[in-house]
Amino acid sequence: MKKKIHFGWFTEYGPIGWDNPDATEGDWRQPELYQKMGRLSEKGKFDFALFADHLGITSSFGDSIDPYVKYGLNGINHDSTLLAAMVAAATKHLGVGTTVSTMLTPPYGLARQTASLDHLSKGRVAWNVVTTGNVAGFLNFGIEQPEHDARYDIAEEYMELCFKLWSSWEPDSVLMDRKTGIFADPAKVRPIRFEGRYFKSRGPLNVLPSPQGRPTIIQAGASQRGKDFAAKWADAVIVGMHYLDDMKAYYDDMKARAAKFGRDPDRLKVFFIVKPVIGQTEELVARKLEALRNPPESAIHAALSALSSRMNFDLSRFNLDEPLPPIDEKDIMGGQTTLSRFYTAGRRPTLRQVAIEEAAGNKGSIAGTPEQVADQLQRIMETVGGDGFVVRVNVHEQEYMREFVDTVIPVLQRRGLAREQYTGKTLRENLMEF
């Protein structure tokens, strides 16, 4: 029996794509565009919609916030948790994921908020765990940013505390028996009295046990420390990989790390970020690819600004038409593998080529007619071993998502490679279905 492919939609609650001439009409600040995209994702039987978030406007590129404000880049964001609730209200099966920092959010508040949202969504909430590589968030909160691995040390204890809070009510503790007047059994509700190096909490959580027990955990581990963290805690990990050999190596590595932590490797799902170029004819695909290979200078500048933000490292100092010189990972406070995926297996693209590929957003170089795109997605999964893809498109790209859902997904469904119906009641049940 063929193993089906999981799908997710990945975007953020911000102005990304506002200037696209083909953008769907609508206001990105309001919920309607996201709700429509959520319903399209649900039509395609996606597992979840995941909303990235940032807590400040960075000055990583050229030591200025100007390019981020000028182009409306990531960093200008509204609260992803509030958006997740709005999308959950407009869908029935689609999981909704919010991004919340372990560094800049009290753990009790996070545990309470996500458990509440799990109730409101009937078990469909996911938490995308980040340790915040963007220094702007720390500056806004008046907190000094710890170095990369230290943030993961803090996140480990954060997770321990949250898991204890989510389990501080036993699943059968709530009775709500009107005849006896007993709401819940006090013997099954426990203070946790947690005291660690970084956090303290008496507990218990004052939210009842939620449908999933805890939110589905998503993480984007790519550094060595991040991959261990994801292998220990996550239900799903999402990553951008540009080449098939890198995807295979990452997939095998993550499954081995999960086993190292005593987990069933199949309980950790690996999602690769993609944005296939789709056209109903090969001629149309060729025209779309040509446009992507020749972006305007403003798009290149915006892409470099976005990369600098994710790395928390200024790329403006380097020559656009030369490969980057070696950079010590210790100097990168944000995503340490953001650039390395462009430079694998001896590849030496110039910084301009990196920016063009980043601006295109076409991770994995997947392009073709619906049948050809389905062929490529199938080949990746068969070569790598599983588990799925997240389609990263902004909320204005409604027509793109409609084309993907209406033309590519049916091909995969006919091949038995994509879900035709939801079978689980919760996000985690659907995620672990295959």
Brief synopsis:
The protein is an alpha/beta fold and 434 residues long.
Describe this structure in words.
The chain has 434 residues and is α/β, with parallel strands linked by helices. The protein has a single domain (6-431), classed as Luciferase-like domain (TIM Barrel, Alpha-Beta Barrel), CATH 3.20.20. 39% of the residues lie in helices and 14% in strands. Strands 1-2-3-4-9-10-11-14 form an 8-stranded parallel β-barrel, surrounded by 5 helices. The chain has a two-stranded antiparallel ribbon with strand order 5-6. A two-stranded antiparallel ribbon has the order 7-8. Helix 4 packs across helix 6. The longest helix is centred in the middle third of the chain and has 19 residues, at 148-166. It is globular and about 70 Å long.
Per-chain topology:
Layout: E1 6-12, H1 32-43, E2 48-52, H2 66-71, H3 80-89, E3 95-101, H4 107-120, E4 125-130, H5 135-141, H6 148-166, E5 174-177, E6 182-184, E7 194-195, E8 200-201, E9 216-219, H7 224-233, E10 236-239, H8 244-260, E11 269-274, E12 277-278, H9 282-293, H10 297-311, H11 351-360, E13 367-368, H12 370-384, E14 388-392, H13 398-414, H14 427-431
Parallel strand pairs: 1-2, 1-14, 2-3, 3-4, 4-9, 9-10, 10-11, 11-14, 12-13
Antiparallel strand pairs: 5-6, 7-8
Structural class: alpha/beta
Q: Strand share of the residues? A: 5-15%
- The CATH fourth-level homologous superfamily: Luciferase-like domain
Residue stretches low in confidence (pLDDT < 50, at least 5 long) are none
How helical, in percent, are the residues?
A: 25-40%
